[in-house]
Structure formats: structure tokens, C-alpha cells
Write a structure and sequence with these properties.
InterPro entries: NTF2-like_dom_sf. By secondary structure, the protein is α+β, with helices and mostly antiparallel strands. Helices cover 23% and strands 52% of the residues. The protein has 3 helices and 7 strands; from the N terminus they run ααββαβββββ. Strands 1, 2, 3, 4, 5, 6 and 7 form a 7-stranded mixed sheet that branches. The longest helix has 14 residues. The chain is globular, with a radius of gyration of 14 Å.
Length: 132
């Protein structure tokens, strides 16, 4: 059951950014999926480390102000290791949408560290690398 639960948390994370077909992206759900003290790091194109709130705020704005529409991202590959109440997942992902009127596509690799809490599996840390 643990793998299924981690799959669900991961899918919810990717789905938080979906604003296709006029939907409002639900990036607020990141606050539920990631521990409040979680660490989020982007290594490329520019190294940036975020708190959960620092990560959410610009994405919420970008996905709601009309600059990035018809956007979604999804996992394409994954490997998950579970030992007791901790888990690691690494996977490839793709993303696409329309950014400031132009088609936008990309992808990369994300790694997530999970912990089992009294409320279920949550993301403790997330890092990603966008491929050029």
C-alpha cells in the first residue's frame, strides 16, 4: 500500500500546477503535500533553494495571471525505494503549456524524499533539474 500512497501524493503534486481547459491551478495543495519545514531546490537552469511558501507564491501568480495557460506537467518515469517510514523517488517529467502566447515545453528530473507521518506520506524534500 505504501507505494500506491506515494504514487498518489506524487500525482497530486504534479496535478497542483494544471490549469488546462480554464481550470484554476491548485498550488495551495502543496502546503498539504509538503511538510511546512520542507526544502525545495532547483539546480538548473539556476540554483535556487526555496521554503514551501517561497516556492508556491511565484507559481501561483504565474499560473493565475494569464502568462502561463493550458499548463500541465506529468511524471514519465520513476523509481521508488521504501524503507520503513522513509522513501526516495526519482523520476523524469515533462511539462507543456502556452507561456506569454508562445508554446512552452520542457522536462527534466525530480527527486522526492518522503516520510510517513501520522497523516500519511508527505514530501520532506524535493529537488529538480530542468533539461535544456
Amino acid at each position: 500500500m505504501s507505494k500506491t500512497e506515494i504514487d498518489q501524493v506524487t500525482a497530486e503534486f504534479y496535478g497542483a500546477f494544471d490549469n488546462r481547459d480554464g481550470k484554476t491551478a491548485d498550488v495551495d495543495r502543496i502546503r498539504r503535500l509538503v511538510l511546512p519545514q520542507g526544502v525545495i531546490v532547483c539546480t538548473a537552469p539556476t540554483f535556487t533553494a526555496y521554503t514551501v511558501e517561497e516556492f508556491i507564491e511565484p507559481r501561483e501568480r504565474l499560473l493565475s495571471d494569464g502568462r502561463l495557460v493550458e499548463f500541465s506537467e506529468w511524471e514519465t518515469t520513476e523509481e521508488t525505494w521504501i524503507v520503513g517510514d522513509i522513501a526516495s523517488r526519482i523520476g523524469g517529467y515533462r511539462k507543456s503549456g502556452v507561456l506569454e502566447g508562445e508554446p512552452y515545453e520542457g522536462g527534466g528530473t525530480k527527486t522526492m524524499q518522503f516520510v510517513r507521518t501520522p497523516d500519511g506520506w508527505r514530501i520532506a524534500a524535493l529537488s529538480w533539474y530542468d533539461t535544456p
